[in-house]
Amino acid sequence: MPKTSPIIALGASFLAIFGSLAIFAPAEAATILVDDFNSYSDGSLTGQGGWDNALPSCTVLSGVVFCDGSGDQGNYKEGIALPSGAQSIDFMWQKPTNPINGFIGTIYIGSQDFVGLDFYYDEGTCAASVAGGAKKEFSCDEWHSADFSWVAGGDVNIEIDDILIGATPSNYYWNIIWFAARSNSGQGWILSVDNIGAGAPPPISGYAPILTPVSPERNTETIVDFDAGFEVAGTVQIPTSNSNIYTDLVLTFRAPDSFLPAETFVIDIGELTSGQSYNYSATTTVPITSSGDNFFKVGYTLLGSPYGGSFLNPPINEELLAFDNTWVKDSADDAPDYLITPSIKPDQPALEDCSAYSGADKIFCEFRNFVVGAFLPSDSALNQIGATMSALQNKFPVNYARAVGDTFSDISENVNDGATISFNLLGASGAVDTSIFTADLGAGITIGDTIKTIITFLVLAVFYSWAVQYMHRILR
Amino acid sequence: MSIVDIIIYFIDWIFQSTLLAVLPTNALGLSYDEFISYLGGVGSAIGSALSGLGFIFPVELIFALVVIAIVAEFTLFGFHIILFVVRLIRG
Question: Which one of A375, A396, A416 has the shortest CB-CB distance to B25?
Answer without folding.
Answer: A396
